[in-house]
Amino acid sequence: MFLFCAVSSAQSNSSPAIPQADGYIVIPDAKINPDKNRAYRAIYDATKAAKETSQLIPVINMAGSELNALKVCGIPLTSAKFIVVFHGAAMNAILDDAHYKEKFGISNPNLKVLSELKKAGVKLFVCGQNLLAENIDPKIISPDVAVASDALIVLMTYQNDGYALMSF
User: Fold this and answer.
1) Which parts of the chain have pLDDT scores under 50?
2) Which domain holds residue 52?
3) How many domains does the chain have?
């Protein structure tokens, strides 16, 4: 497997799938590397805001970073079965640009990456219960994000189906 990843890493861009996310660098002699014969199933629990409103929130960066890792190693993105569910402070990241600007005074840096994640096959959900509790109209969130009944139901459903839990 190392040879597969090392050969494929000759690409000059360490962020070939999601350019705004952290890149991936092959680690020589690593004992575990991405494997082209494996499906990667992860459910990302998105609750944290970015340190600065001009930055990507952690979950978007990390999901994008893992897609970059797979792509650098020549693994098709169809091998990535990623789900992201937003609730809590992470919900600000999915506001449409007008409402993000109204709240923070700048354009939403997360919207383009949300679109890229969706195009890469990532399923994006927001907690409907949290939207109601925070009085957020679903019409003001990114069209790339679907409303789910409850974040915890989404998390349990996918974990019960064998998805690894990633919390950011």
Assistant:
1) 1-3, 7-11
2) 2-167
3) 1
Q: What is the 3-state secondary structure (H, E, C) of the chain?
A: CHHHHHHHCCCCCCCCCCCCCCCCCCCCCCCCCCCCCCCEEEEEEECCCCCCCCCCCHHHHHHHHHHHHHHHCCCCHHHEEEEEEECHHHHHHHECHHHHHHHHCCCCCCHHHHHHHHHCCCEEEEEHHHHHHCCCCHHHECCCCEEECCHHHHHHHHHHCCCEEEEC
Are the beta carbons of 33 and 1 closer than 8 angstroms? yes
Query: What's residue 5's pLDDT?
Result: 63
Antiparallel, parallel or unpaired: β 80-86 and 40-46: parallel
CATH number at residue 14: 3.40.1260.10
Q: How far apart are CA 27 and CA 104, in angstroms?
A: 39
Percent of the chain as helix, strand, coil, to the nearest 5: 40, 15, 45
DSSP tag of 92: G
